[in-house]
Amino acid sequence: MKRKIMLGLFSALSAFFAHGQSSNVNELPPIDELGTGMFMGHQGGLYPNGSNDMPAAFYADAVEMAKSVQPLDKSGKPSADGKIGLIGLGASTVAMFGNGLETQVPSTPGVNEELVFVNCGIGGQDLSDIMDPAAKFWGAIDARVKEAGLSLEQVQVLWFQEDNLRNKDNAFDARVNQLTKEFAFMARYCKEHYPNLKLFYVSGRHTTEFMPADAKDKHREPKAYLNGWVCKQLIENQINGDPDLAYKGPNAVAPLILWGPYFWTQGEKPRADGYAITRDLISNDGVHPTDKGIQRIAKDLIDFWRTDAVSQLWFLENPQSADVDPGDALAVEPYMHVIVNTTEVQSLAYNNIDPEFNFILLRDTVVVQKEKLNRNEEVVVRVQEPGTYKFLIADATHAYAGKIEVDSSLQVKVINDKTTTTKPGKTIDPNQPAWVVNGANKLPKLKRLLDPHEVVKCVMKDGSGKEVLSIEDILHKHTDLNTLLERGDYVVTFYDENGKVIPLPEEFKTTVRIKY
Question: Fewest CB within 10 angstroms: 70, 287, 421, 470, which?
């Protein structure tokens, strides 16, 4: 009897060490909540030293890398008429979230007009399938990039979420270390495949706590949880100078790697930052998202790129972070998301819509629905009949119009090429001093940068170094660059009253892009 008990105990211990630590999500702390605390001998925080913020030097590099993202022609050369390729790369969940991004990215107000998103997620294609450069996966996604009107040379930003489902090891160090090597290989190969790739965003998987008991173990926790630690270790290795992940200098072999949104939660329990994944977002298999989950996660990604101080620089047409101190979270304004059934049809900054507004739905020219709604982070409107509709969001001074199709299952599709958004811009008095770039008055920022100089001359040159514009005393006159320059990029230099160049902070962008 004693021998049987000992054998049973030995078998249990063997199983534990073979499969790793607990799969109970309540015993798995979210990485961003750990801070300087430890788990399995490893310190928490999304970035080194228990912090959820980038180290200062790495942040500065990330800002410069993001600023270098610019429209490229199909040969990869800077062009005012070029495009910025953004792709989502991974397996089935990326493919599904990518469906949401395909709808939401083009319809999100303020997104860089040159940005083109391509869904390069394919179901069933985990790391074991795509690490071979000769795999059919690469030909399939290359065709998608081409179909979107892009070349491989125009892809500059990539969002990556993956796992290796053939790896059955759940032991923390063994699984995390092996997958980190595989993620690093993918970052290097993507840099080779997309020669102008600059930024590589990684997101750990969302929890698989909702899987039914009889489901296959290949997705079961703690695999999704450990996937986040792989992202953390990959980024830390790059920050710590791993030559296999060098992102700058003559020996650069990888893009700069950053966290995207961190999705993992302890089941439905909200994290300390309020983020939660609820059961209605995940299908019955406990792994893949529902239609509502697709739209929510796509929205989470867009909100991240729109509000993150680094990501704004390439994602937004007029990034706020260019005018604020790095990492100043107070500069991020709240947004309202208007959702019809489960699909986001419009997203508006709070300062672009009154606290109370009208939502009007028309079929042909007939008003079929009119509601007075209150501004909120999420405003949900229900449409009960299929058909093609126009919608109008309006308050006393703003109007935003769009077009949607509702199918027989009441799923909503935004017709992007028909969607129009109008809003009054801030009136810039032509009789007052101003420095207008693409409709925005940058004079207040210039005054801060050029202080204490009172008389400043500006000289602008085109890409060949030819002087195309010289303006005296810019701080005291009204200048609209869009009326003086053709569309394109220009190098700007400022001179004081003695003709000496005024040095500016390193983070100041010395190029001006005229967009129209």
Answer: 470
- For residue 396, the number of C-alpha atoms closer than 13 Å in the C-beta half-sphere is 4
Determine which helix (DSSP H) or strand (DSSP E) holds 129, and give its type and residue range.
Answer: helix 127-130
Structure confidence at residue 19 as a pLDDT band (50, 70, 90): very low
Distance of CA 2 to the CA centre of its chain: 59
- What phi and psi, each to the nearest 5 degrees, are found at residue 187? -60, -45
Rg of the chain taking only CA atoms, in angstroms: 25
Q: Is 114 helix (H, G, I), strand (E, B) or coil?
A: coil
Nearest to 201 by CA among 190, 193, 212: 190
C-alpha–C-alpha distance, residues 363 and 497, integer Å = 62
Q: Which helix (DSSP H) or strand (DSSP E) does residue 392 occupy?
A: strand 387-394
* Distances in whole angstroms, Cα of residue 159 to Cα of each of 190, 199, 239, 392: 11, 8, 19, 33
| Cis before 222 (ω within 30) | yes
Task: Give the pLDDT score at 48.
Answer: 93
Q: How far apart are CA 172 and CA 249, in angstroms?
A: 34
Structure tokens at 429: 């008095």
DSSP run (H or E) holding 490: strand 488-495
286: number of Cβ within 10 Å: 18
Q: In angstroms, rounded to a whole number, what is the distance separating the alpha carbons of residues 216 and 269?
A: 24
Angstrom distance (rounded) from CA 213 to CA 377: 36
Which phi-psi region, left, alpha or beta, contains residue 90 (left: φ > 0; alpha: ψ -120 to 50)? left
The pTM (predicted TM-score) of the whole model is: 0.65
DSSP at 289: B
**What is the distance between the alpha carbons of residues 188 and 208, in angstroms, rounded to a whole number?**
29
Q: How far is the CA of 200 from the CAs of 119, 142, 197, 206, 321, in angstroms?
A: 15, 18, 8, 19, 20
Contact status, residue 84 vs residue 72, Cβ threshold 8 Å: yes
Q: Three-state DSSP class for 344?
A: strand
Compute the distance between CA of residue 200 and CA of residue 185 in angstroms, rounded to an integer. Answer: 13
Amino acid residing at 354: D
Give the pLDDT of residue 509: 56
Cα–Cα distance between 78 and 82 in angstroms, integer?
A: 7
Closest C-alpha to 72, from 184, 195, 189: 195
pLDDT for 320 = 67
- Average confidence score pLDDT of the chain: 86
- Asked if 258 contacts 198 with a C-beta cutoff of 8 angstroms, the reply is no
The Cα–Cα gap between 344 and 380 comes to: 9
CA dist., res. 117 & res. 119, Å (int):
7
Q: What is the mean pLDDT of residues 172-199?
A: 97
